[in-house]
Design a protein that fits this description.
Number of domains: 2
CATH class of the largest domain: Alpha Beta
CATH topology of the largest domain: 60s Ribosomal Protein L30, Chain: A
Strand order of the largest sheet: 4-3-5
Radius of gyration: 35 Å
Number of helices: 4
Largest sheet: 3 strands, mixed
CATH architecture of the largest domain: 2-Layer Sandwich
Low-confidence stretches: none
Number of strands: 5
Strand content: 5-15%
Order of helices and strands: HEEHEHHEE
Structural class: alpha+beta
Helix content: 40-55%
Length: 225
């Protein structure tokens, strides 16, 4: 004959056991769903990061190809400065002190330099759209030593060096060399006055009355002007 007390214990145990197993199952299910979500989020993050790295690698590859193509600029009219990562105009343009007019003796070489620059930029082929930022920077030479005019004329030399760059741009335009017609080129002019990187120092200070030309490739979607 069954003991009523044991039967009562069994009747209590199995429902409790089922409830416990159900609770554990629910907990495991919640943990599984949560872990799966974390996995999917991580997978998405990794795919995004991988896509970004791939895009950057492709962009770097394009920049490398462009830089190699820009080596064609090097020669009679331009040289590449690896320290400053820019092309420098080799035409030995010298302005009269305080003047912005380009002397006739330099004009043929400056025109040919502009034509060379435009031709090289037009012939570079890339898989992605590229826009070239061409910066023409006018410069000015300081007075020797601690001449007080270096401070007194500091602001004026910004204007002077800018006008020198502007005169080069206008000279090119007057001779049919208009970079604004090229959708892939944006030409900017500026003047650094007594300042700017890559200046001549000491006894060569006078040679700073010149131009610098920088070519910066910008890879990406090109919008119409």
């Amino acid at each position: 004959m069954n003991d009523p007390q044991n039967r009562s214990s069994n009747d209590f145990f199995w429902p409790s056991y089922v409830d416990l197993m159900t609770s554990l199952f629910v907990v495991m299910l919640v943990l599984f769903v949560y872990s799966f979500k974390l996995f999917k989020d991580r997978e998405h993050d990794l795919k995004t990061a991988n896509g970004e790295l791939k895009a950057k690698a492709e962009e770097l590859e394009q920049i490398t190809k462009i830089r190699n193509s820009l080596k064609r600029l090097e020669g009679r009219y331009f040289k590449y400065d690896p320290a400053l990562e820019r092309h420098e105009l080799l035409v030995p343009v010298q302005f009269k002190s305080g003047r912005d007019e380009i002397q006739d003796a330099y004009k043929p070489a400056l025109l040919q330099a502009g034509r060379t620059l435009r031709s090289v930029l037009k012939t570079i082929k890339t898989e992605q759209p590229v826009r070239y930022l061409v910066i023409v920077e006018g410069m000015a030479a300081r007075y020797a030593g601690n001449d007080a005019r270096n401070r007194a004329e500091e602001q004026l030399t910004y204007q002077l060096s800018y006008r020198r760059a502007l005169n080069l741009l206008n000279f090119w335009k007057q001779n049919g060399l208009d970079f604004s017609q090229d959708s892939g080129v944006e030409l900017i002019i500026g003047g650094s006055g007594f300042f700017g990187t890559g200046r001549y120092r000491g006894a060569k200070e006078g040679q700073n009355k010149r131009f610098l030309i920088q070519v910066i490739p910008k890879i990406g979607r090109i919008t119409s002007r």
